[in-house]
What does this fold into?
Amino acid sequence: MINAVTDVPPQLAPGFWIADSHPGAPRPPLLGSRRADVAVVGGGFTGLWTAYHLLRIEPSTKVVVLESQRVGFGASGRNGSWCVPELNAGPALLAKRFGASRVAELHSAMRATVDEIGRFCSEQGVGGFEKAGVLLVARGSGQLPALEDTQLEWERVGLSSPYQRISAAEAEGKLAVHQLEGALYSPEGASVHPGKLVKGLATAVERMGGEIYEGSTVTGIKEGRPPSARTELGEVTADLVVLALEAYLTGFPGWHRAILPVYSLIELTEPLTEAQLASVNWRSRMCVSSMRLTVDYLALTPDRRILVGGRGAPYRYGSTLSPDLERHRATHEGLRAMFREWFPALAGVRFTHSWGGVLGMPRDWIPQARLDRGRGLGVAYGYTGHGVATTHLLGRAMAEMITGQDSERTQLPLVGHESPLWEPEPLRWMAVRYVQRQLSGLDSRVARGGRPPSGRTIAERLAAH
Ligand SMILES: Cc1cc2nc3c(=O)[nH]c(=O)nc-3n(C[C@H](O)[C@H](O)[C@H](O)COP(=O)(O)OP(=O)(O)OC[C@H]3O[C@@H](n4cnc5c(N)ncnc54)[C@H](O)[C@@H]3O)c2cc1C
It folds into this structure.
């Protein structure tokens, strides 16, 4: 079966991280026919970690990575830099699906994953990894119930939360956020430089003998034994093909309803002086977020710029990937306004970069990796906004499955999991746009001092499953 695949326009730059990590000239595209043990489609974190771990476990494996644009062109080179031991699905949802003891296993595997990424960075000389923790703040009293709930969610399933409740005064000492009413802090999260991590990973894969072809859009997959992946100029026949495409998976017929593309947008300031950072007490590269329902995230880059990210670009009918959504004006303006509200002391700071990217959301919010030897196909996807660490976990699990290794990772409930499909259109469009509008309305109401969200509205229940 040959599948047509939508292409990604090459003219859009992926943003600051890739430019800052000096990717150099593009690698040449695949030309002609190749035979490999494993062909990986997609040169983001999932594809590159899969290739890296395959070569680490069995150095003689012939691995070919096919990337449509440049490595890191997708979400992996554009993200908010949070490398945290959390999945998008919270402990309550995971416990409901898999049982509380499995949630403890997952959390422990994710904690180890963050440290392994740190180890990789230090061994390979990849700069930008700093484990400074995560600060969740309630901005305004209307966000306090959500903060409490985040903490209690762990206790309700019998686990101790990685977050400690800290007072507003203590939190101010970590970060002086306007209208801060309370906070949770966890020491477990880290920040990376996504561009340097992608570049370091690609370099390591090539040093270990893997081949990476850029500008090589896969236009068709032939499943079976052996499977093959075809580009306009060449073809790889392999024992297994691994799809590592996250949101772009929606362009493969047959996979269209497996994932919902969601755009996340970022604004970046100029580098701040020591005095400017001291004025808001920002001393380390801590990850920061509020309890807004529509998601916001902040981070500090290694060169001391503040990154502010959030969602807001509307879902497009038919899960259409549309680069203009990366530039959704109202969302970018909202992010700048948000920065000014959070940090009135930094009112004069300029913004120098803005970009956006697309992440993938599975119907039940649970990321997954599967290998089907009969179809000759492996697939790992569904991280939503929490893929920086999880891609390592699932890329490694994929490599272990392929090489027949049993490990604590291959036993995790994410391995073999298959989410239900998203609803067909127009139902999907109607439901997603409804949830987007309602959550945004609830956030505005809380920001105006209104009642906190009850958690019981249709939109909140749909969003939380
Ligand atoms: C703006 C933004 C902020 C985010 N912030 C965070 C964060 O702070 N922390 C966090 O944990 N997660 C974050 N995420 C999510 C995280 O970045 C992703 O979950 C993760 O990078 C997914 O990696 P991936 O390799 O699976 O997919 P991608 O990085 O999207 O890689 C897929 C690759 O496939 C390529 N491709 C597409 N079609 C084809 C084809 N036909 N043939 C060949 N190649 C193809 C694409 O060019 C792309 O490079 C964020 C995402 C975005 C967009």
Observations:
- The two ends are 34 Å apart (CA to CA).
- Confidence is low (pLDDT under 50) at residues 1-12.
